[in-house]
Design a protein that fits this description.
about 20% strand; alpha/beta; single chain; seven-stranded mixed sheet
Length: about 650
Amino acid sequence: MRKITRRDFVNSTLIGAGATLLTGCTPESAPETFGPAVSSRAFPPAGAPANGWYGYGGIGDYASSHGNTPELVGHAHNIRYGKYDAVAADWIDTGETYDTIIVGAGMAGLGAALEFSMTMPPSKRCLILDNHPVFGGESKQNEFEVDGFRLTGPQGSNGFSIPPVASADEEAYAIGDAHYYRLLDIPREFSYSEPTGGAETTRFGNDNFGFLHWMQDRVDVSHFYGAPGERRHAARVWDNDLADLNVPGHVRKALLEWVTTEKTPHPVDGLAQWLDSMSIKSYLEDELGIDPVVTAYADPIIGAGVGSACDTTSAFVMYAVGLPGFKGYHDYYLDNRHSFPGGNSGFARYFVKRFMPRAITGSDSFEDILNGAICFDELDKDGEQIRMRLSSTVVRVEHEGDSPDSSDFVTVSYVKGDKVYRARARTVVMASGGWVNKHIVKGLPRASFEAYDTFNHAASLVANVALTNWEFMHKLGVSGCLYDGEFGFACNLRNPMVVGDRQQPHDPSKPAVLTFYVPFITPGLTAAQQGNLGRMQLFSTSFADYERQIVRQMNELFAATGFTPERDIAGIVLNRWGHAYIMPEPGFFFGRNGETPASKVVSKPYGRIGFGHSELQGMQHWGPAANEGRRALSELTRYI
């Protein structure tokens, strides 16, 4: 069977495949084709980072923290290259002692903090240290002000389905989303802006993922494929068995076989473990006998969801997320999806508001939690049960004394500004990523270190493009687009959720945010190679060059229906995540060759240090991530 790539799927050659490795181009050097009207809105007049890749951050509380910051990347490299392997004489002892220090204020760290606030007496003290200027990890948001409208888009994590209401039995809420919906009184019903100006004729998805495949029967999506110069849009392609899709006939046939096959190559008993023993590519091509063009079509969809291509991703992922190929096993139908305006920043804000009520202005109502300003001066106040110290990168974690078994405290060293500080705690929860944990936890057991060493991580880029209008998409009758091109593979407009009196418009003549989720996959390479190449591309491409790519891609997609970048683009924010996902390779979930999964090995406490972070779930999601932090803290309570 000949090897077929995504290039074969579209029967064309990629234009400028991959990000060109350019450096040193500052935001002010944006090409003249952007026009002064765009440049004046897309870039701030002063204060842009000098390194050329961070770029504009939008407005509001999240403007200083969009994706990995330059400072964070610098500190991470210093950790990797051993700068903090020995304690230096100029490190400053803060004199602080806490019952728990939580490393990381992403969803896992917030889950640990929430558990601390609920289970510990008021006299107990907790400090959260996070390396970003704003809490939330990848659950943060970008904000724009365009023509008098406040627009919000996700920096990373977004999209959710409403969990079923379980019984009042507390055990029913032991893990995941349902536990936190009940605990935090998160709404289960949402309203969306009424469409005007013709928008009512187009079907929108509520998040940035469902439109890729799962909900194309309910969302108007264009497929833009074909040879160079012959590409054309085709909407609602699944409604007529792909007859309008501009690809060769054998591609249409293979895709239809993928969505209709009822083959069951393995009994239901033990199915999950069997699927985890192979890649998605192996399952589709070897077990189902489906043409490799389907693997090429699915590659970026899988990459956008878990970071890796089909040949390096466990087949259990495709089964668990409900992609086709398993009709003989279950009739999976994705329930209606939702996304808060800022993606899963809404969940992060719910957690913080509960254990630190003054951190966000307003009441504990839905609209105040999502819309209230962050009170940064309330986050790190002496005397509070929980304190949060931002822009503080932890670089060294170690038990005091000769042995973890006899130690009463753990010392945590962190960089803030240009100085290194040290604090101590009775317990520490490592809610930060495995790629850094293995370097900063000193004396980490060999088994844990080796297990962490099997983890490979994927880079991801989320670009939010603020538009003055989206008439060019309205003329196509679509809210999203899948394509093969220079920048990413898909983009879409979400149905704007109503949050109190803040409503984003839902009218083609008014502003909106167009979002691109860009995976970095290179089928044919190992997971480690794909991850490293993706990070190199992500961090060595300037903001200005990515902006050029975005404009060229939008021109190719929409110029024929009137798109003009100088008029239609109001601003662009890039969110670069160097380790956005763990790559769930075959064996990740159930282990390889009967061995204990690496995630189970690294989740074991090491003395007074616990480990709970989103990677341990494989398919990272806000609720299970928070539960990992919750679990890690609960395993240490005997020391508090």
